[in-house]
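Researcher: Good morning. I'm working through a list of sequences from a screen, and I'd like to move beyond sequence-only analysis. For each chain I'm collecting a predicted structure so we can compare shapes side by side. This is the next one on the list. No need for commentary yet; just the structure.
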Amino acid sequence: MSEIDCEETKRHVHEYLHNELSEAEISDITAHLANCDSCEGDYDVENTLNNVINRACADLPPAELESAIMERIRLIQKGVAH
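Model: Good morning. Structure tokens for this chain:
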């Protein structure tokens, strides 16, 4: 395990949350987060933001809105709508 600093940890927190790092990198960042309140705070903010985005994106628009948008797109594609 190598020592990583706050800058490196903060730069990779997004990838860390999404399991997009190697096992060694995950281990290094986990160890750093366990010992650094500042980076742990940044991690918490990023994690909360990701959770909010995931919840918001999980909601489907009302069927009427989806239909209206699709109809508008069709009209634009046909050159009918301005």
